[in-house]
Amino acid sequence: AQSVTQLGSHVSVSEGALVLLRCNYSSSVPPYLFWYVQYPNQGLQLLLKYTSAATLVKGINGFEAEFKKSETSFHLTKPSAHMSDAAEYFCAVSERGAGNMLTFGGGTRLMVKP
Amino acid sequence: NAGVMQNPRHLVRRRGQEARLRCSPMKGHSHVYWYRQLPEEGLKFMVYLQKENIIDESGMPKERFSAEFPKEGPSILRIQQVVRGDSAAYFCASSPGQGAEETQYFGPGTRLLVL
User: Fold this and answer.
1) Long-range CB contacts (< 8 A, 24+ apart) of B58-62?
2) What is the pLDDT of residues B66-85, one digit of tens each?
3) Closest in A34, A41, A90 to B42, CB measured
4) Would you call A20 an interface residue with chain B, using a CB distance cutoff of 8 Å?
5) Does A62 contact chain B (CB < 8 Å)?
6) pLDDT tens across B30-67, in order?
7) Do B58 and A44 touch (CB under 8 A)?
8) Which of A32, A36, A43 is facing B100, going by the closest CB pair?
9) What are B2-35's pLDDT values in tens digits?
10) Closest CA to A8 of A69, A89, A71, A74
């Protein structure tokens, strides 16, 4: 069974600082991994996804994530935070042969201080 | 190309009433998923449908909840005899294909409040 853990339900950074949001997964087969962002009272928007091509995945809005199989991690980073990055971020996993459901982590709320 | 559409965006029901949530997938998408987000939690999978078929309903509560995706029209998530614990945001997503690597595109959600 697949599962996702996001360490840190709240992360606060200063504008211009590095953003690091952590995601660890558990999967019995090579997974597909996704990062979504949710702004208040809105749906989820895909930031990026890993589908077994390059391990470093670049997404929208300057975000990127690196798949590390040995660490079962898929942490999300951005070199310089912007005020508009304040939102909730969800890591999700799906498995080959296990249906199409996404299993989500609990989410990390990113706050950006001026 | 319009995105995934959900209506209503907000729904208030009293305990014991029925709630009907609608989802129109993106054009060309024939795979629909429903997820529930309880306050301060992540999204939990409920059901996966293709046109006229329920493919996976492993996340659906056994009672009071049902879903359909008819040949014509939107997908419907129906909750009968709602209780306060049903208060949540319900998100619909759609994808163009059926692989686990497919991106699921999410609608804005329906926020259900049960009084």
Assistant:
1) B58/A99, B58/A101, B59/A101
2) 999 999 999 999 999 999 99
3) A90
4) no
5) no
6) 999 999 998 878 899 999 999 889 999 999 999 999 99
7) no
8) A32
9) 799 999 999 999 999 999 999 999 998 999 999 9
10) A89
